[in-house]
Amino acid sequence: MFVEPSHRREHQNPRTGWIEVICGSMFSGKTEELIRRLNRAKIARQKIQIFKPALDKRYHEENIVSHNDNSISSIPVRLSQQISDLAQDCEVVGLDEAQFFDEGIVEVCDQLANSGKRVIIAGLDMDYLGKPFGCMPQLMAIAEYVTKVHAICMVCGEVASHSYRLSPSNEHVLLGETDMYEARCRRCFNLGEKTAELYSR
Ligand code: ZN
């Protein structure tokens, strides 16, 4: 489990910021881990704020909601630039579904960390084709800490790092996850529909 480094030194002025990335497939617990870290910061009386891309309208408009109902309120934003203004008073900035932000998000996160903030980013590292998703590769590169979380393959029970799309749609952004995607290991992801023959599900 990720344990926060002790970046805070006495009389440190200005404070040092840093970037953490939590990435993985669908059903890997990214959002739960983001919420866990933010709740710890909140308990320590640090000022936190969460942002998510405005296009994600699953569940609550104003709330980040993880799959176990453990939620923290968040602000939906259309442009990554808005975060710089909205996060001015925060000590800890959380981003969820970061793969959907525009490419300006990399510069925004860099600046937030440079100005002394802790930035925690959660997002899908790969899309349904198994390709790097949006700006996640860049964000992982500039982060001090990267945590890759895993799901369990819904076909064979191995460790899963891929999000397999069951629906035939080739739309890049397809929301409403549980019925349209499966977490799969590399082998079952590559087998695609052929897993049905092999495992007679
Ligand atoms: Zn598998």
Number of helices: 6
Name the CATH class of one domain: Alpha Beta
Helix-strand makeup class: alpha/beta
Query: Could you please say which CATH topology of one domain applies here?
Result: Rossmann fold
Secondary-structure element series: EHEEEEHEHEHEEEEEHH
| Overall outline | elongated
Ligand catalogue: zinc ion
Determine Rg (CA atoms, Å): 18 Å
CATH architecture of one domain: 3-Layer(aba) Sandwich
Uncertain runs? none
Q: Strand fraction band?
A: 15-25%
Query: How many strands in all?
Result: 12
Task: Describe the sheet with the most strands.
Answer: 6 strands, parallel
Mean pLDDT, to the nearest integer, reads 88
Q: How would you name the CATH homologous superfamily of one domain? A: P-loop containing nucleotide triphosphate hydrolases
User: What strand order characterises the main sheet?
Assistant: 5-2-6-7-1-8
Helical residue percent band: 10-25%
Q: Report how far the terminal alpha carbons are from each other.
A: 34 Å
Q: How would you explain this protein's 3D organization?
A:
The chain has six helices and twelve strands. The chain has helices at 30-43, 81-86, 105-114, 136-142, 186-191, 195-199; strands spanning 18-24, 48-53, 63-65, 71-73, 75-77, 92-95, 118-124, 145-149, 151-152, 159-160, 162-165, 181-184. 39% of the residues are buried. The structure holds zinc ion. Zinc ion binds at residues 153, 155-156, 158, 184-185, 187-188.
